[in-house]
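thought: fold this chain, then report.
action: predict
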Amino acid sequence: MLSKKSKIYYWANSISKNDGEGILANNYLILLKRNFKNHSLINLNKYKNRENFVFKYILPFYGVILLWKYNLQNKKISYINYLPVWNFLLPLLLPSTTIMGPVTGSINRKNLNFLVKIFSIIGIKILLYKYKKIIFSHDFFKTLIPKNKIMNCYFNFLLFNFKKKKTINKKKYDFIFYIREHQNKGNAFIIKLIKILSKKKYKICVLGKKINLKKNIFAAGQVSKNKALKLISKSKHSVGSIENLYSFFVLDSLKYNLKVFVNKKFKIDKNLINTNAIIPIDFYNLSRSINIIEKSIKLKNKKIYRFKNLKFDDYFRN
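observation:
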């Protein structure tokens, strides 16, 4: 007679394949399944994903309550997302036995920047005190972690399962952008950039938020992940957001060998990814950025020379 599988009860605010948090969660679930082969994973979140305040900031605490319920029954539990480092109440309230998902967070915020930095420092201290090991989606907070704790931290989970894709020679768009309705994305700069490039007769594809510009612009809107990848593969260049170096949009662009323009404030770790396909621009100087972009696109196609294949399985080892 076959024995019943043990269970891991987990909370994820989103497991959508069409948003960053959801994609991150699905990648983490792949890792979780690989390291707990004799367990079945039970999702405790029965609510449909919504982009609103209650869903993003209140519902996770309901998830904490549910996880405590199963923790008191001596069940394995995991909190996967939403987990920004500044929301220090989440790691503070979660049971210490929680298998934590990737910690996220931004370093370039338009509003409440100082307060977010203070809360982020508090969040890091709580995580380091309460949990033996931590996975971070990126490495923005590496400087906040003491040297004796670095070995127990796993950075850049965004790069989990990163693989180059076969590129197509015939390109339809000169530029592709992804605009998400969020105050920290630098959308004002992006929209101004799109207006100028469209007037210069570059062909542009815009994913996400619909914009009221028609000249040389295909506004695809909200599309499925597969459709987005097809449009990215038909493009030559893309532009990242102000607050994230390795967003999934940037990573998908790199997979299809696009030349990607990113916020110059980010430092690219050449031990992690050695490439000339990532070009820094100034999100606070539009004319300078236009000049850099136009000079760069005239040069030979860029490429990734070396990419470090990151391993995260050790996170689950004692």
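thought: worth noting. The CA atoms of residues 69 and 259 lie 48 Å apart.
final: tokens above.
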